[in-house]
Every structure is written in C-alpha cells, then in structure tokens.
Amino acid sequence: MKVAFLGLGTMGLPMAVNLVKAGHAVRGWNRSPAPRTKLAELGAQSAATPREAAADADVVISMLADDAATRAAVIDTGTLAALKPGTIHVNMATVSVALAAELAALHEEQGIGYVAAPVLGRVNVAEAGELNILAAGAAATVAAVQPLFDVLGQKTWYLGERPEQANAAKLAVNFMIGSAIGTMGEAVALAQGHGVDKADFLELVTSTAFAAPVYKGYGKAIAEERFEPAGFKLALGLKDIRLALAAAEQVNVPLPLASALRDAHIESLAHDEGHLDWAALSRTAARRAGQA
C-alpha cells in the first residue's frame, strides 16, 4: 500500500520503519527533519508538509502528540481536504473523545474513511511490531487496513463502529496505568516509612500479587529511580488523565481517583518533572512523606 505517515516521534518512527521493512511505499512527515531523514535512509520518501506526504496515499496514518498537533497537521494544513475519495485515515494517537467524534464527522462529509486506532505499548514494543491496537470505526474500513495493523501489532482489538470508542478505551487504560504508578509510589513510601527497602518491596509485589507488565516495567524504573530517557513523558500522562476526566464528564461518570491523580501530576510538573518518564510520578508520594 501507499502509506503516508504523519508524526515520526518516539513511537511513530519505529512504526513507520516496520511498514517500510514490510514492503509498503511509505512517505513520512515530521515537524523536525531528523526523523524524516532517518526514515528516508531506509527507503521511504520524505515530505516537507503533511499535505505533501498524503498526496495519492491509500492510507494516511497519524501518530501525533495531542489534539492540537493532530488538528494542526490534519485539518489546518488542508491535508484532509486534499485527500482523494476512498483514502483511509488511521489516527493512532491518543486524542480526546471529542476530537475523535469531530474527525469522524469531517471525514464522513468528504467520503474519507476514518479509523481510530490508539496503541498499547512503549517504544521497544513498537520496534518489535508487537503493539496492541485498539481499533474502532466501520468494520469494513478497519478490515481494509488490517494488513498494516498486522505489521505494527500482535493483536487488533475491535471496539465498535464509532471511532471515539477506541479513544475512550485507550484513555481508560491510561487512567489505570497512571493509577498503578501512583499506587506503587504511595505503597513504596509506606513500606520505606517502616524501614523496608524499596527495591526489595517492589520485587516482592511485582513477582507475586502484581506480576503484570505495567507493574513490572514501571516498578523496576521506580526501584532504580530510572526516569531518563523517558519512554513516555509524565507531562503526556497528565494530558491523558485530563482527557479521561473530560470523557467521563461527557457521559456523567465520576472519576474521583482520576481527580486525585491529576493533582499529583500537577504537583510533579510544579517540581519540573514533566520531561521525565511517567514512573517519576512516584516521587510525589515520597516528597509528601518527607522521604525525598
């Protein structure tokens, strides 16, 4: 397929690389030029603008940081308006439910297929092509891009006909991840307050009651205080918690834990930790306990 890939950041670049290796004709765009150059060295084409990247594409994949970046690249540049009928846009970014619904409506007006397909997995998982893909949109449209999903991920989870359903599910998952990090931070502070070694405690819980990837991965980072380089920035975690709260309010679902979690993130940003890995959220509990 002829694929335009918009957003060659930490996650987007390895995903685009995998599509090139699988034999797809990829034309990549990124706001900064270095990732475009790296992708071109592997056999892809480099585009100076999103609209140039999307010209004559069969499928446009966007993997951008947030709502503002997605809106700027897809709508404000005229990229969506320039797509040929029958093109499919796959938005793999974590965006708000509101933007997902808006994009779905705009694409339908133009006869362009739209699939929301945010992913689960950090950069090493993206490099291995083993992401879990949360997909929603018209079933036939999702089926048409499934060959691309097969390159990028180990499993596609189809969540419904409305694209925003995938984004709601992704935000719910990220709320759970943030909660796990916050809980570990507080539990570690409790154990340390009674003289239990942090690393020993985290090895215990992640080998027994909480032997799951999120606890193991973030638990190891917390134990080692390894917060750089960031696999997923704490500031982006705050963005997703805020989006989860907004999505919940839209359907009258109270999320009191998410409200407390949002405040913990804001506290971290007040200590200039937004650029650190999400695991650094654990520092908040340590500071509150007088341990840091």
Task: Write a structural description.
- It is built from 14 helices and nine strands.
- The chain has helices at residues 12-21, 33-41, 50-54, 67-76, 79-82, 97-110, 123-127, 139-152, 164-193, 198-207, 213-224, 234-250, 256-270, 282-288, and strands at 2-6, 25-29, 45-46, 59-62, 88-91, 113-116, 119-120, 131-135, 153-158.
- A six-stranded parallel sheet has the order 3-2-1-4-5-6, sandwiched between helices. Strands 7-8-9 form a three-stranded mixed sheet.
- Helix 9 (164-193) crosses helix 11 (213-224), helix 9 (164-193) packs across helix 12 (234-250) and helix 10 (198-207) runs antiparallel to helix 11 (213-224).
- The radius of gyration is 20 Å and the shape is globular.
- It starts with a strand and ends with a helix.
- The relative contact order is 0.10.
Care to give the gist of this entry?
The protein has helices at 12-21, 33-41, 50-54, 67-76, 79-82, 97-110, 123-127, 139-152, 164-193, 198-207, 213-224, 234-250, 256-270, 282-288; strands spanning 2-6, 25-29, 45-46, 59-62, 88-91, 113-116, 119-120, 131-135, 153-158.
**How are the strands of the biggest sheet laid out side by side?**
3-2-1-4-5-6
Calculate Rg over CA atoms.
Answer: 20 Å
H-E string: EHEHEHEHHEHEEHEHEHHHHHH
**Largest sheet composition:** 6 strands, parallel
Taken as a percent bin, the fraction of beta residues is 5-15%
Structural class label: alpha/beta
Number of strands: 9
- The residue-averaged pLDDT reads 97
Helix content: 55-70%
Query: Gap between N and C termini, in Å?
Result: 52 Å
InterPro entries: 3-OH-isobutyrate_DH-rel_CS, 6-PGluconate_DH-like_C_sf, 6PGD_dom2, 6PGDH_NADP-bd, HIBADH-like_NADP-bd, HIBADH-related, HIBADH-related_NP60_sf, NAD(P)-bd_dom_sf
Pfam family, one: NAD_binding_11
Keywords: NAD, Oxidoreductase
Protein name: NAD(P)-dependent oxidoreductase
